[in-house]
Amino acid sequence: MLQRPICCAAGGFTVIRNGVDLGMAIPESKATESSSEVRARLGIPITVPLIGFVGRLADQKDPLRWIAVAEQLASTDASSHFVIIGDGDLRPQVEAATAHHGVRVEEIEASTY
Q1: Burial class (CB in 10 A: 0-12, 13-18, 19+), 26
Q2: Residues 110/33, Cβ–Cβ less than 8 Å
């Protein structure tokens, strides 16, 4: 567990609540794969931290900052795994940034239900 912020000064950010009603999310029974099946497919043990970004790969969502934070987390806990689910205009930059920072990020295609 992190004891201190890694990249942000206290009060240096604003929490914006998710605009998606999680009560309307697709129930596990309708999912095509369970979380343990996805982890197995990606070779990620069930016992290690898995941190994800789900969203549009666009400037407003700042996936490049997320990758920079992932790099910092990976330097403190090598067992951490990272996934990105999404697509958008910044996809080429996201792919280049993950390669440049040496952070293993699995890209998972979002499914349409």
Answers
A1: exposed
A2: no
Long-range contacts of 7-10 (CB under 8 A, 24+ apart): 7/68, 7/69, 7/72
pLDDT digits (tens, 9 = 90+) for 58-85: 999 999 999 988 888 888 888 888 888 8
Query: What is the DSSP code string of 9-68?
Result: -TT-------SS-GGGSPPGGG-SS-HHHHHHHHT--TTS-EEEEES--SGGG-HHHHHH
Are 86 and 19 within 8 A, CB to CB? no
Taking the whole predicted model, whether its pTM rises above 0.85 is answered as no
**CATH number of domain containing 57:** 3.40.50.2000
Total domains in the chain come to 1
Two tokens at 43?
A: 């070779």
Asked whether residue 92 is assigned to any structural domain, the reply reads: yes
